[in-house]
Design brief:
alpha+beta; PH-domain like; 7-stranded antiparallel β-sheet; 4 helices; 7 strands; about 25% helix; phosphoprotein; PH-like_dom_sf; SKAP_fam; SKAP1 protein
């Protein structure tokens, strides 16, 4: 696994989503707050969290690969429980967040799930040439249009005049010759 180098917020690469979330601290303290406001940034592979949006160094970051994201209303008992989501990965730390609204929590989960699906479609490490491969798969599987187009052509065939022996078209099968009359 490659080491993730900390980056200032503005250098975090292709930012797909960013905003303030409350992150549950790992160590629950009697003196400090259990939930801390953090500026969170999601790029194609990494989730960064900063003290605020002007911070130069992240408080932490982790690769989202192999994580799963889901809404998690059980994290809080107060009125903001529908704003919660978590990122889990077997054998790794679970990250718990509270978004400003339920819709925002859903959007974070959707964005992360979209990225995870995209990351999961690659079985080999990304190279510049390989990056477009999944999109080619999507384009080539566009067989619905091809099928309907062929259906239209097939419907037109009987209308085309074939001459006197138009029945021959139905008798000739691949690998078989018509019987002489």
């Amino acid at each position: 696994l490659e080491e993730i180098t900390p980056k200032p917020v503005q250098d975090a690469g292709n930012i797909l989503k960013q905003g303030y979330l409350e992150k549950r601290s790992r160590e629950h303290s009697f003196f400090g707050s259990e939930w801390q406001k953090r500026w969170c940034v999601l790029n194609r592979r990494t989730f960064y969290y900063y003290a605020n949006e002007k911070s130069k160094q992240p408080k932490g970051n982790f690769s989202i690969e192999n994580y799963s994201a889901r809404l998690a209303s059980h994290l809080r008992k107060d009125s903001r429980k529908r704003c919660c989501f978590e990122l889990t990965c077997p054998g790794k730390r679970t990250y718990e967040f509270t978004a400003p609204s339920p819709a925002e929590a859903e959007d974070w989960v959707d964005q992360i799930q979209f990225l995870l699906k995209d990351l999961g479609s690659f079985t080999i490490p990304l190279d510049e040439e390989d990056e477009e491969e999944p999109y080619n798969d999507v384009d080539s599987s566009d067989s619905v249009n091809t099928t309907s187009h062929n259906t239209t052509l097939n419907q037109d065939e009987p209308i085309v005049e074939m001459g006197e022996d138009e029945d021959d078209i139905y008798e000739v099968l691949p690998g078989k010759q018509p019987k002489p009359e």
